[in-house]
Specification:
Elements lengths: L1 H28 L20 H6 L12 H7 L7 E7 L6 H9 L3 H16 L9 E4 L4 H7 L3 H13 L8 E3 L11 H8 L3 E3 L1 H9 L4 E9 L3 H12 L3 E10 L1
Parallel strand pairs: 1-6, 2-5, 5-6
Antiparallel strand pairs: 3-4
Helix pairs in contact: 4-5, 5-7
The structure holds zinc ion.
């Protein structure tokens, strides 16, 4: 009997050491790189190198009530609160974070960046009474093509930081709309208007559970037309809506 314990104790100390050396080997053959500048990451660094992490152009919108995200959305509907994590400019290398999450098969990065945003919202008075996190839904066909919904990955990170549930059954994308990134202004608004449908029975169930205030989550806040199109059926059903995105397109 004693011998078996000794063997299992040995395995217990051996396995983590073995996994660490495997990770070391993986890093040697497939070096992990900073998403923004491409510098090879050191052991213990993740996603962004220390320099890019320091330079991330944070918005601090979680500390400001009438911030630029709120003002942009307020032209379309009345959000309770709104905030993005960082500024996003076409010329900036930080746009690579969004591209990796959206088109680069990196939902893990979305979740970790979402968690970073969630930590900021956690200390903010404006976001304190949120009860559930709702990602902007993807059409099932696009979700199938991409393999995941990037807004849901971000929402999961935010929800983990705020210790809240993620609600994916409430909203559905009913139309397969064109990719928003190639559209501008009114074309964008027309493209998403009425694209989202509420699941009425889920809505009744949440409200009977006392859920009133939802946090809508998307990857980028550009014109605000997608968030407004999502907010419309939710507000009509009596929910209060706040919004959070990773990036604020300026
Ligand atoms: Zn970097």
């Amino acid at each position: 009997m004693r011998k078996i314990f000794e063997v299992s104790d040995m395995c217990r100390s051996f396995i983590p050491a073995f996994l660490t050396s495997l990770r070391g080997l993986r890093d040697l053959f497939f070096p992990r790189k900073c998403v923004v500048c491409g510098r090879v990451l050191a052991a213990g660094e993740q996603d962004l190198c220390p320099h890019c992490r320091d330079e991330l152009p944070l918005t601090y919108q979680w500390d400001i009530v009438q911030n630029a995200a709120f003002e942009r959305l307020a032209r379309r509907f009345e959000p309770e609160a709104a905030a993005a994590l960082f500024f996003f400019r076409q010329q900036s290398d930080f746009r690579k974070i969004i591209y990796a999450i959206k088109y680069g098969g990196r939902p893990d990065l979305g979740r970790r960046m979402g968690q970073l945003l969630g930590e900021k919202l956690k200390g903010s008075r404006q976001f304190r009474d949120i009860q559930a996190v709702v990602p902007v839904p993807l059409h099932p066909l696009r979700r199938w093509k991409r393999g995941y919904n990037q807004a849901e990955a971000i929402a999961r990170g935010i929800a983990a930081a705020l210790d809240l549930p993620v609600e994916t059954a409430l909203l559905r994308r009913s139309r397969y709309t064109k990719t928003q990134t190639r559209l501008r202004g009114t074309a964008k608004t027309r493209n998403v208007a009425d694209a989202f449908r509420l699941d009425a029975s889920r809505s009744v169930q949440l409200q009977s559970d006392g859920v009133r205030h939802l946090l809508l989550v998307d990857d980028v806040l550009t014109s605000g037309s997608t968030l407004a199109a999502c907010a419309a059926p939710l507000r009509a059903a009596g929910f209060r809506i706040s919004c959070a995105t990773l990036a604020f397109a300026g």
